[in-house]
Amino acid sequence: AADGWRVLPSFVRTPLLERLLAADVVGFFAERWVWNILCCIEDNVPGAVVDHKRNEVQFAGRCTRFRAMPLGYSPASLEARPPRPAPDVASWVGDRRLVVHAGRTDPIKNAGRAITAFALAAERSDQVRAARMLVKMNPNRLYVDVNAQYLADAERRVAAVNERFGEELVRLVVDDDVSLTLGLLAHADLVVLNSILDGQNLTAFETSLLNERSCGLILSEGCGASEALCDVATIVNPFDLEEQATAIAELLSLTAEDAAKRFDARRAVAMRYPLPVWVDAQLAAIAPGRP
Prior knowledge:
By secondary structure, the chain is of the alpha/beta class. It is built from 13 helices and ten strands.
């Protein structure tokens, strides 16, 4: 958000933004990020003239254009990494419903609140109580204290939930195997991506293409992807545990027919955002009017 820049001293933020304005085009994944950066420039760069209608900034004799260029998935990357089954997870889940939360070991991914929301939903709903939750973390910079603390907090929450219910309702898997992650997403009945803040979150799109069980999708309003998928996913506040718990219970209670209709609609939207379209948008933005 625009206010976030105020945590940086002016002698840092102003030069950063001025150097950004040396570009011809600056691209973001979502329109709201374009709006935010324009507000940052307006507040922090003396002499910059911001045109919010055209998403352009005049500064130091040049014009910089700001554009939203959504990216959803790479077809070639998905083809090169086929989903890998997880037999141990399959035997643990059995014929129960599977809820998956996926992300790296980074506090913005918000796994702790997803675990707590699942536990709240399990207390209130027999359908959720009969399900299983798999939290898949990609180990990322665990030498950074906040990342290590984030993982430790998730481990404590998982242990507390399982002790509370007297069985392994939630399991945490820390593994950097992308094919395993894709395999879990392919076989999930519900995917929860409740990030506090994400530039985009490609997993929301990948899930919508790979899943084989017409899964539901809970997506944080803090993800850039929520702009493209707002009409076909359940959008939640990443800090609101009640809202997330309610969404989990509602999506796990859908009939197979309703779940399939929602999933098909989401897949149709997700397919609009492949990497080649994103690249073409950048080329068109750099040289507007050229073939």
